[in-house]
Write a structure and sequence with these properties.
Strand order of the largest sheet: 2-1-3-5-6-4
Structural class: alpha/beta
Bound molecules: 2'-monophosphoadenosine-5'-diphosphate
Strand content: 15-25%
Distance between the termini: 22 Å
Number of strands: 12
Largest sheet: 6 strands, mixed
Radius of gyration: 19 Å
Order of helices and strands: EHEHEHEHEEHEHEHEEEHEHHH
């Protein structure tokens, strides 16, 4: 990788940060498009996270991605935010504009783009959506699906208070269902999304009976280690279309790259393979 003193500098802030895949993604694009730029990991100490974000313009950085545990801190440090960040009260992409901090949240965008990439004919109004889990990822995905016009969003979560909180926050079209009877939630569904960590390497399996799932329902697992989770394998065995979680990771990165480096980057198979090498 070569960059000069005139290089555009961006990066990703988190704590810890060494497991982040973002440097690999952005530096692949910088090489591919021969851009004089660099994207670095920033391990931001918890004591000074808010101040660190406020310092971004004076450091001359183009901006940063933000990951765990700082998306809410970053939100509070911004001068201006986009409607997704406003809604989710969390920022994952910071762009310096005229010396001010602009915060965006591209998680919902990344989810919707990856779904459309895998299934160009997908429509939010095709039928009920089932969301497994009620954490931060579920919240962004529910916001995206609601905005796209999903008519019915069924959320089921081990801790019912968290799914009830999402129902209270988003209102219609969200319904909550009992985690113990999650298989029943699949009846008539057009899309099933796993946002829990179940099925991830080192985690227990999801344990979901797909008997009630319609044959054409799309099954999306945001887990990407392994890429083919037991849920996706079971869905494919039934003939259901299946979408892995790598696409969301790659597509959520595009808006930041576009704003910092003035190039709309492509998610291609070489990039997928490049990131998969380290998963
Ligand atoms: P993220 O921000 O990635 O969504 P999170 O907020 O920690 O992460 O959410 C993790 C999700 O996985 C939650 O829905 C969690 O369920 P709880 O709300 O009950 O904690 C779910 N999850 C994690 N481990 C689980 C397990 N062993 N059984 C069922 N659900 C689990």
């Amino acid at each position: 990788m070569t960059f000069t003193g005139a290089a555009i500098v961006a990066g990703v802030a988190g704590w810890p940060i060494k497991h982040s895949r973002s440097p690999r993604i952005h530096n692949y694009w910088l090489r591919k498009y021969a851009i004089d730029g660099v994207y670095v990991p920033f391990a931001i100490n918890p004591d000074g996270a808010h101040d660190a974000f406020r310092t971004i313009p004076s450091l001359g950085l183009a901006g940063m991605n933000v990951t765990v545990p700082y998306k809410e801190t970053a939100y509070r440090a911004m001068d201006e935010v986009d409607r997704w960040a406003q809604r989710l009260k969390a920022v994952n992409t910071i762009v310096v504009r005229d010396g001010a901090l602009f915060g965006a949240n591209t998680d919902a965008y990344g989810f919707l783009e990856s779904l459309r990439e895998a299934h160009p004919g997908w429509r939010a109004d095709a039928g009920p959506v089932v969301i497994l889990g009620a954490g931060g990822a579920a919240r962004a995905i529910v916001a995206g699906l609601q905005e796209e016009g999903a008519p019915e969003i069924r959320i089921t979560n081990r801790t019912p208070e968290r799914s009830a909180a999402l129902r209270d926050e988003f209102g219609a079209p969200v319904q909550t269902l009992d985690w113990e009877r999650r298989g029943d939630a699949l009846d008539g569904a057009a899309l099933l999304v796993n946002t829990t960590s179940l099925g991830m390497e080192g985690q227990p399996p999801l344990g979901l009976d797909l008997a009630a799932l319609p044959a054409d329902a799309v099954v999306y697992d945001i887990v990407y280690v392994p890429l083919e989770t037991p849920l996706l394998a079971a869905a494919r065995a039934l003939g259901n279309p299946a979408v892995d979680g790598l696409g969301m990771l790659l597509h959520q990165a595009r808006p930041g790259f576009r704003d910092w480096f003035d190039t709309d980057p492509e998610v291609d198979q070489v990039l997928r393979d490049h990131v998969l090498e380290v998963l």
